[in-house]
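ERR on first pass: missing label on line 2. Operator R.T. fixed the label and resubmitted. Corrected input:
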Amino acid sequence: MEEDMYVPPEQATALTPASEIARRLKPLIGQQLRLTGKTRTDGANLRKLVAATLASGNLPAAAKEGSWRCVPPKGKGVPSLLREYVDTYIVTSGNSYNLQVWNRDPSSPSVQIEYTDGATLLANQVRFVLVRVDTTSHRVRCVAVLSPDYIVNRFGKFGKPTVKQQLIITPTARQRVYEAPGSMVFLPDDPRVAKRTVARVDLSGCNFHGEPEAGRLLSMEAIKAIVASRVIGAVLEPKATKTRGQALEQLVASALGYKVSDKDVMIGGYPDIRHQALEVKVQDAPTVDLGRYSPQFEEEVAGCAGFTSKSVRYLIALTDATTGKCRGVVLCPGAHLGDQFTYVADESFKCQRSIPMAFFEQMEGMSVANP
DNA sequence: TTTACCTATCATAGCCAGGC
DNA sequence: GCCTGGCTATGATAGGTAAA
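pass 2 clean. output:
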């Protein structure tokens, strides 16, 4: 049964050796795995395929209920195929494969599974099963079973963990914004910030990436008026996912009175329009990626003196997925985002390591362990 | 069983350092 | 100074699960 794959082995020492795992996964070579193009689906299908293949052979005995526990809260970052302590990854196209390991540092000895007798399974013991699938024939081209040590020795260390904070604007919450007066949910600055703001100022000579300046910080009310006339109803090309954010940034910056060139908006950063301590986002999907900073946790913002992640102002434009038309706007200091919407409970992080595609070319048609 | 919420998945854009 | 490739960050979205 496949569901047994989600229970660790009775003995931490009873795991099938990597070389044997590779041998058992040999039948996958040439097998078809229908790629849907939906990343999450493809990843899940691969995991099921590997689970079923392993489950059809000899597995270590399953641990008894109550004899073990997942150490990380909610099992975050623990490999999914626990019985063989394996995580699966799908490799498709490109010149290199970006191996992304979520919520654990793959080369650290941090405890993932703890048995009541004191035995443990550690993060650096996980076996990585990388399966390359051909994007046109949808057939498995090779399987590599790798240990974290091997990956580090051969390709270098995993990169610095990158943090991702998320906020959810549910369809219901989105509807509330659409139906709010002026299609806008608006909250003013904290009084401490408000007294540093002005109602109007000529910004044409300023760089919007510069630090906020006394006397040149617009009040939220002023920004609100500009947004109402220039952003609500604006169309942000739906096809250009990655550039829509820049398009909005450009639109807002010029509406505020800055002189903006294409080059200016290419410079990312937090907050986007630092001179106004204003972070700008376009959303047609519910998940808002906040990136490194989240107003849920107050932090000084580097290069934005006097502001923290809670006082930085957020402008979130909610657009229609098909037309790209902006149907509502949330404009408020970061501190208030949480009153309206839901934060994803914990922050997530990932460690990345790129692996050249040539590595997989070498093992075409093979299933090997730490070659 | 169905729905709603939360999280994990892979792709890729954009930045940056090192080589020429 | 330009090009290349690796690293980091951001992006949409479906799977998974808890609640209804």
